[in-house]
Queue: 4 jobs
Job 1
Amino acid sequence: MEEIINKVAQDKLDFNVGLQQLLQYDFESLFVTLSNYIINSIPNKTDYNSEAYQNALATIPLKPTYTPLIILKTYPTKIAFNKLPLLPKSENDKIIISLLWIFKITDTERRNTECKNGCGHFWHEIY
Ligand SMILES: [Zn+2]
């Protein structure tokens, strides 16, 4: 699962192909992994917000009226991440699409900035 997520983030695997593979995993572990990855990829540890994060929210490839998108845009990152798993199961796929999209953008930003001159993130070297 971790490898698929990082390959999608690094454009080594098509977003939709990777997404279909990830949706085979159970929602709980996928959600925990993706939300932790996003939190870790945002340099601002005060409110876990950044230009890349906001840019990601604005470009999620889903209808902006879907509940998970409204929650993500309304609440600060960590509060939104606490609310998402409480939604009905019918929202699960939309949540995963949103989080995978966000991580792709926030991780790409990190790779182009703080990781640019080498970093200790093993997944940026291996995958
Ligand atoms: Zn790195």
Job 2
Amino acid sequence: MESSHRSFRCLFFFCAFILVEKIHGNTLRRQNPFNFEQDYDEPTCGYEQCNLGQPDMINVHLVPHTHDDAGWLQTVDGYYYNTVQYILDTVNFELHADPTKKFIYVEMAFFYRWWNELSDHMRHAIKRTVDKGQLEFILGGWSMNDEACTHYSSIIDQHTIGFKFLLDTFGKCGIPKIGWQIDPFGHSREQASIFAQFGFDGLFFARIDYQDYGERIKTKTLEHMWFASPTLGDQASLFTGALYGMSYSPPPGYCFECGDSPVRDDPRLDDYNADQKLAKFLSDAKEQAKYFTTNHIIWTMGSDFHYSNARINFKNIDKLIKMVNAQQSNGSKVNAIYSTPSCYLYALNKANLTYTSKKDDFFPYAHRSHTFWTGYFTSRSNLKGYERTANNILQVCKQLSALAQLDDEHSSQFKMNFLKQSMGVLQHHDAVTGTSKQYVAYNYAKMLSTGIKECQDVMKVSISKLMNKSVMDPIEDFQFCNLMNVSSCKFTETNQNFAVVVYNPFSQMVGQYIKLPVTSNQLTVFDDKLMKLDVQFVPVSSETKKLAEFQGSASQFELVFPVQVPPLGYATYFVNKSKKAMDTLESKSRSDGGHIEGESGSGQLDANTLENEYLKLTFDNKTGLLSSIMNKERKLEINAVQSLKYYLSMAGDNWNGSRQASGAYIFRPDGDVQDFSKFGKTKLTIFNGNLVSEARQVFSDWASQVIRLYKGANHFEIEWTVGPIPDNDRVGKEVISSFETSIKSEDVFYTDANGREMLKRVRNYRPTWNFENTEPVSGNYFPVNSRIYIQDPSKNIQLTVLNDRSQGGASLKEGHLEL
Ligand SMILES: [Zn+2]
């Protein structure tokens, strides 16, 4: 058995080399193509080395590529070891064996790791293929980031680490020129703006709404100019191409790694198919060319994790190129070439045409009538929240290490790279989107946790240095409270005399309130001039105490006090045990814990309010819900009913469009929105205090809220706690925060793009095509990265909701907002 197995493998390799020899007419001199000990030419990378094809023919740019997700069904590590390392090994073997071959590589999270494992000999050999433009880096981010759930600062950061690696490693030949967002599920205007500001020359993607695609294919506008920022103008305009067939895989018939037959070109053998393959290629090229404005078309020759045996594709593409181009002597006008997206773009550029323009974005994306990819705007809300928190920590970490001018002795760059690289992976379009397998999502959270810990060490050393303290053992001195989301912090629960250092990463003075979980209300707080501050003790809610994550915590109160922190500076406060207990908040309304009774028809009970200098929030006794908001400065009051509600998830097996289920990617509600009435009355408890007042609402044993108004604030907070969502009825529930107001917003609302500029949204409408909405809820949902608002310009009224993580949002009726 052993010997026959071995001889088969020998035969296979022998055949492979014979083929290469025949096509290129030069004899392969070596078994090992990684022999670089020959003349070393000047780099010839860049547009100059592109094959621009034949001027009077249809030029088919065949782009060998692989799409390597930084985690999805497997962890990022799993994919590397199971597949990606072999892709990079075998592809580079092929590139060395034949200098006409090209390949693009995209995801630096994988390439960086592979590069680090190479010998100097191999690195030198790879660098030659980069210098010759055979191996070209496209996009060059740590991952191919999602565009809906990502914050602009994280998009920039994740490309920065990729670009820096490429520049340091390959010099100018490593610099990417093209955005390559082939798999993200919808496309953001801010992403295109950032790409243009990177200096990219173009952007290609595959996923575009099927109705939009239908219109663009008819009008030959899959390729167009995107004006991606109303404020930056030309600086943010970018050539953009949506790929033919809404796909980044090979055209049907040429996917040699997914079941399509190889080119069988020996007529003496059974299953000879070369003539059919050739005829199909020529006809497919002519068909595709009808929908494009130049004589160039692009075919993406690869897909998810393809090329782990690069021979499978390259051998067949070699045969196709040879057969297709041989027909030119018979008058064929089709020319096939190895190419890259940048060479394809260069060919278009040489044609010097003008294109139509677009100013909005490509959200939401639907690939059929009931399949709107709007679920992932919200999926795995906790992971999205953790990712945003980690981004904040990374920004502070970078600032503090720069301000403190840490040197290598502190390993700060090394430590910060953990979080930079983890965040790079988290931006991936199956990571922050919440669309990975559960164990992969846990792995993402673990990566963030490790990165945050490393960065906190950097922050401790930085703060110590800035405070002129010994930096020998800052880890002992400084502690972080990482579980504040469940009102738990071991350090503040077990100490009653400690200092609190608050850092302000903004370039302006910030005044806000700090909350610390504590066990006693016998504490006082002083500022750095030893002035005693106003404080307030807010009891930890019974809903918080029920959380699994709270168990083991001893905190009874949240100690609230105001802080003022200078720009890019810090302020120190001292917490001390005092002799006398401070007043704690009492619930104002009912002694039964504030449960306000109100049977229908029994008449209204007194309204309850939260009020400060700027705002008055009124709650309806009967429903337990917020009912109106008053802007006291303008003496302006609007009706505003806010509550948690939920949609039932559509069940289905996804077999066809009408059987589309709701899930992590797709949001498809089944019927109208439901309130929580089947779980009993909403319990309302109001606490009024000198610094903060709270309305606590319990909708069910798995859904509660706190509406919070601080002294001196011209906004209020809503903190929701939802889950675990019960599924014992086998019906999914998609929870929303709903605002129903009297604002005359008509059918218009506004959402942000990646935390930057706002886009105008009009219900059941798309600016560039005649939109037929087959999903009245999901088809109106858009990504809300940092804010959503409705307004009545005639009355100068606007309601803005700022969220702390990415969500989906919509305005489905005049005056309504939901997230
Ligand atoms: Zn992907």
Job 3
Amino acid sequence: RWSEYSEKYIAGNYSIEMGRLSGGTLYCNPINYAADETQKERFLVPVAKDGQIGASAMTEFNAGSDIFSMELRLHERDNKLIAKGKKLFITNGMIADFIVLYGRLDNGQLAAVVVDTEHQKLRNFRSTRVRTYGMTDAFVSRLIFDRVELPKENLLHGHGLDIAFHQLTEERLVISAEALGDAMKKILYSHAYALQRMQFEKRLHQYQVIRFPISKKIRELNLMFSALIQYARQMDEHPELGSSKLMAANAMGLKISSTELGFESAIHCFRTLGGRGFTRQYANEIGLLDSYCMLHGGGSNYVLEDSESRRFFKHKPTRREVEDIIPKIDY
Ligand SMILES: Cc1cc2nc3c(=O)[nH]c(=O)nc-3n(C[C@H](O)[C@H](O)[C@H](O)COP(=O)(O)OP(=O)(O)OC[C@H]3O[C@@H](n4cnc5c(N)ncnc54)[C@H](O)[C@@H]3O)c2cc1C
């Protein structure tokens, strides 16, 4: 089944796309970046090629936006790593065959290790669903690692933070694509209803109050699509842009704007459709809550905006300011 609601694929089902993002980008990208050839053969091929399910586990109860404060321990014992700790809000967690797990080694450094969940039967590992409003098909889960033994050769090479951050640009472009698809569907519903629905002997689109917000959203959607296609093509042609600071900033900006657009389009859709917007026939497909979730998924927008605005307001003192210091008198 594609979804809890449907036997078939629903275009623009945000939560299915989140599952795909998690297995595709969030799991595969770090492995492609930081695994050796043997690890790629064991952990990348089954997910990227053979359709097994991947997940990425960073977030913890106390380490949400502040991901650097994560506490899960990866104790080193001979040729094993012992994972102890909990993870929260992990997309695909309860159905994953493989998980990239982030935690701290004995020296305190962040690291990433691949967990083969043995089809969720791994000893001392438990996963349960977080019951969410919205994002139903993303199987958002809570994971418990109660001294889970992992072979040391599953450890990815390099610093965990670098591995985690490396995939962010691609992740944010994929989330932007999801958000724009989601926004497009909602704008289409609003537009079609406004064109056809007659009230007070006029079509709804003949009222400015209905027409203007939809037109504004169409304009924003078109602009963001152009940006997304341009960034995605640049990344395809020059994969090394995955490490570019400018591309990272562009992808972050697009993630913020596109997920906000998805959320606002959902609100306008509910408003335009009147009572019908709340019936089950539409509510599943329109889904206000999926787009609300994605203001936080992939990095919460407030935090991203804070980081973006700091960059815009970064103050580099001029040479004159640097030199214009009254010299200290040495008595
Ligand atoms: C649908 C979904 C799927 C997810 N999938 C995964 C996954 O697969 N793997 C994974 O590891 N994680 C996943 N997450 C977790 C996600 O990355 C976190 O929810 C996110 O990082 C925010 O953390 P938090 O929920 O603890 O919020 P908090 O960190 O508690 O933040 C609460 C609010 O405070 C704001 N805030 C926090 N700090 C600041 C600041 N410095 N300045 C201004 N505002 C601030 C935030 O923007 C937010 O609005 C998922 C989340 C969702 C919703």
Job 4
Amino acid sequence: MVQVAYYSITGQTQRFIEKTGIDAYEITDADPFHEMGAPFILVIPTYDDDMMDPVIDFLGYQSNHRELVGVAGGGNRNFNDLYIHNAKDIAQGLHVPIVFDFEFNGTMADVKKFKKVVQELELKTTEH
Ligand SMILES: Cc1cc2nc3c(=O)[nH]c(=O)nc-3n(C[C@H](O)[C@H](O)[C@H](O)COP(=O)(O)O)c2cc1C
């Protein structure tokens, strides 16, 4: 089973996850030290790098960095070249793909597409 872990600051990413109906794990500022223990997709919004410290702590905890299979970035296209830059940096740093991107809390089409991406990754990870 591919799991989903997400981080949200103003609630847009949380809203996106809620719309998918996926039972995802929320990374919190209070305690980002939680081990997923199985392959997962990380869904994060985009801010200045230091705002992602809890996500970096989470990824550095136990086996999390090894179980990460892909990153989905939420952002705002008005940021042009900086669109989903945190997701891109993390994906590149941990050698996993960007599996999805969306603005704010995503459209219904985004929700549908993301669920398909999760299903496809599920098939891929259970093949091995
Ligand atoms: C201060 C600030 C900086 C942001 N910087 C970026 C950015 O560099 N690139 C981007 O794609 N989106 C950027 N955004 C947009 C947010 O990532 C986007 O609104 C996201 O949906 C917020 O998710 P959250 O409510 O789950 O925290 C920024 C938003 C704020 C308020």
